[in-house]
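Revision sheet: structure tokens.
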Amino acid sequence: MKIKNRWSLITGGAIGIGAQIATDIAKNGSNIVITYRKSKKEALELVTKLKKDFNVEALAIKLDSTDEISVVDFFNHFAKKDIFFTILINNAGDYLYKNILDLNYKEWSYIIKNNLDSTFIMSSIFLKYIKHIDWGRIINIGYTNSGAKKATPNITPYYIAKSGVFYLTLSLAKELNDKNITVNMVSPGVMENSVNINKKLPIYRHGKIKEVSSMVLYLLKKDADYITGTQIDVAGGFGI
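Predicted:
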């Protein structure tokens, strides 16, 4: 798959799953912008590597994707440079493993804001920005089995936020159904870089970030034009 004359935007693309997605998309010919909040060193190292290894343009930009004004300024900056994104990967989002009885409101609101609100802000402004383009992809990175009726006492705000992202994915997919823009959600389970990595797993191994990226890459292909409004778990059966 070659992605020609397109720019891809990956939030939280400096490390982990985001960095792997950025690498794989660049390998397939797309210019890349990754955003970061804290991982400046890693972000700059990654874009240098992408430019060298794959002969693409690559930029790293510090961005708070929960700040609507900053996000509008971000897109306007690139529009003035005639850089137009057709692919948005909403990967940024913090994780908190803490029992609901020990959780305070500040922690609760922070997790909701950095996972759900940020995805809404990025997606809504991205769609205004590409309204004149006849092809696009939004892929949200979720959490396995989001939206299910189940208790998650140690990750309650995170699970609620990702479930919200799932329902946002469905609504956007429906509204964009006739505009050649697909919206999907790829949901990892317990990965090789997960915080709570000692959970019992149904197939006795942790997921690899490359496996998540491979699914994202598939959804960017022409072959995936008929797939929208889906949640695809890359979780080895965890969470079923």
